[in-house]
Amino acid sequence: MKIKRKEDHKNLIPEGVYNYQKDFWICPNKNCEQIYWKGIHVKSFAEKLKNLRSN
Length: 55
What we know:
This protein has 55 residues and is mostly helical.
């Protein structure tokens, strides 16, 4: 589930990530509540997938 206001979860997000990223998602499981964001691995994976599709 996308977080509407990242300020509400600032204590759960690493400071560098908080300052750099705009969009965050939280696991809807109340026992988990893990925070996710699109890091560099997402861009890297998308580029690899694009290369595989073009071959």
